[in-house]
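Issue 218. Parser rejects a valid record. Input:
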Amino acid sequence: QAAVAIENANLYEELRKNQERLEKEVRFAQRVQMALLPAGPPKRLKGVDVAAAFSPARELGGDFHDYLSPDANTFVVTLGDVSGKGVPAALYSAFAAELVRGRTFRRRYLPDRSSPAGILSSVNTILHQRQLEEYYCTLAYAVFDLKRRVLTMANSGLPYPVRWSEGVCAPIELPGVPLGSFQGTTYDEVTLALHPGDVFVFYSDGVSEAMNDAGGEFTSERIIDVVNRSVQLPAAKIVEALVEAVDEWRAGAAPNDDMTAVVLKITA
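Output the parser choked on:
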């Protein structure tokens, strides 16, 4: 009995040390994930106001977003959502985000292959070659040309972004196949004129599909309602209003998916 007690004590101590090590590694991974997210738009960029909110369902999430400025008059917003949750999805999302970033900044050298649709096709090819069939990535890639005053966007299955322009708020309907699903997939683009006061909301399905205790989803219609009510506010306040509306809808229910929202407002 004494030998069994000693053995159990040793096993307990080993388990305790392993648990402490794993918790420490997860905390560090959380810091890394947050450090990889953008702190804000480039300071030299004029004419846009942008803000975001990110909330993983577990310790780590599979959502990612970025703000990129490959040249003086161009601002790129990306928002991606990797299937699954937790550590595997976080690793996959970090890889996908760096692929997108790298292909965005080669725009100055390969402009003919750096359109939104071209970048999605390129990233799709690489992710598919990794043969991780159980994972895929939905991604909205939006290029704001602040000189020509146009938005060009491609989408690979992310929920349709919402656009408020000249009093009308509606989704930008642009379907697409998730990245990594099939070899050789091509993507469509949409081009829209930009006006002062325009608001664009990009979000992962963890926002529109946020559930309350009764199993009801928040829906894109409620997102549009929030935008209509808060469109005169700065981007950060619109994000805050959206997060508060989702929290109120969930009413304490545990999150069922990672949630990310990016709001961009044309200020001039």
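Fixed in the parser; the record now loads. Strands lie at 48-55, 63-71, 74-82, 137-145, 150-155, 162-165, 168-171, 190-193, 199-203, 259-266.
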